[in-house]
Amino acid sequence: MDFPMRIAFLSEHASPVALLGGEDAGGQNVYIDEVSRNLALRGYAIDIFTRRDSLMAPPVLDWTPGVRVINLTAGPPEFRAKDTLWPYMSAFRDAFLNFMQHDEVHYDLIHGNFWMSGWVATELRQHLSIPVVQIFHAMGKTKQRHQGSMDSSPQQRLEVETGIINSVDRLIAQCPGEMTELIDDYGADPHKIEMIPSAVNTEIFRPVAHAEARRFVGLEPDDFVIVYVGRMLPRKDVRNVVHAFAHLRRLCAEMLPGALPKIKLLLVGGETPEPDPIATPEIGVLQHLAADLGITEHVRFVGKRQQDTLRYYYSAGDVAVTTPWYEPFGLTPLEGMACGRPVIGSAVGGITYTLADGVTGFLVPPRDPQALAMRFYQLLQEPELRVQMGQAARQRVEHHFTWPIVARHTGDLYETVLAEHHLAQTRWHSGQARPFVSIQLDEKTKFETEA
Ligand code: UDP
Description:
Elements: E1 6-10, H1 27-41, E2 45-51, E3 60-64, E4 67-72, H2 89-103, E5 109-113, H3 114-128, E6 132-135, H4 140-147, H5 157-167, E7 170-173, H6 176-186, E8 193-195, H7 210-217, E9 224-229, H8 238-255, E10 263-268, H9 281-292, E11 299-303, H10 307-316, E12 319-322, H11 331-338, E13 343-346, H12 351-354, E14 361-364, H13 369-381, H14 383-400, H15 403-429
Parallel strand pairs: 1-2, 1-5, 2-4, 5-6, 6-7, 7-8, 9-10, 9-12, 10-11, 12-13, 13-14
Antiparallel strand pairs: 3-4
Helix pairs in contact: 1-15, 2-3, 3-5, 7-10, 8-9, 8-13, 11-14
Bound molecules: uridine-5'-diphosphate (UDP).
């Protein structure tokens, strides 16, 4: 009987089980969930290791056929912001080793996610001689460049990232921009990098008829609606969207006197299902901004929503928008496109790769509300262009950006890495010593079988 290849996904802060839309639960959680499911459909057995962030979390959860979620105890079993988790990573590593020993399970390959799990993966690679494929999801240098003193990452981050880049077997870059960052900012060997863009679930994210979507969301059928979906963080620059929306209203008043269209801005995301400025301070900032600009009644805050209803929100929009300062990849533009809507995105990071400018929507400079307002105005004036772009957007997603495509490429990469690894091992066995570094386990972090 053939045993399936067993892969350990390490993802210290992003679990597929988490509710999405809050500060630390977004694209990485979706990636882990979709890639593991689709790899399981291709015959791999996947264990996702994440940090236990609640006493209620079971040690092992059968998530979907072929995919388990393992909650490792490393630090307090409660939510902690991801930028405070670094001190628990040696405990995370030890808990992983204890789990392997306890369950007598062997992994063929480790897939590290984010820099902290990447460090754990490199430790395990040395200790167990298991090959590692690493995806960062976001790079520390880029964050530092854009956020400056607002960057709350631990100071070791850049050094640790460089160490990971030098020691893993392969790096996955999600777009050409990330590949450039790895090479130019960290001196990564280009041959080590495989570009595998992320994707969207085209069954969950699909077009919904306009009228039905408007009914579901509770908006008038004839309004012109602009929709933003995503985490509510300063770097997502939803403030830019609010400013642009105010410009658009002024532009319409100037250009279309007497026939002022009704336009609305729909903002989805936040820590709670109801928009709460205390739980989500950025919502408070945006509410004040809307009040200062005199547009409060035209801006609707929705709160966070889960993936299974988001198609109604995207489809209720005439256009979807996202204008972050920077974006490692950006799943939300793809989601808007999959729902058959034109998307306007800032010309940064992965968005410049996924969005075809002038075909599936428009790229605009970040931090430029006037430029964004002009594109809103154009799409408001040209309903046929909206339809054309929406159709082109859906097609582009179907052809290039689905999770089964990602799983196929990722599986191929695993096979290549494993073949190289076996070859190297054969060489070691025929004479050369195998590098082996023993790790001192922390006795306090034994894997717990009971919650
Ligand atoms: N998201 C969600 N509910 C919300 C807000 C966001 O499910 O209320 C999801 C969104 O659909 C997308 C992810 O969170 O799948 C955000 O991913 P993206 O890559 O756009 O940004 P990131 O969170 O990685 O910065």
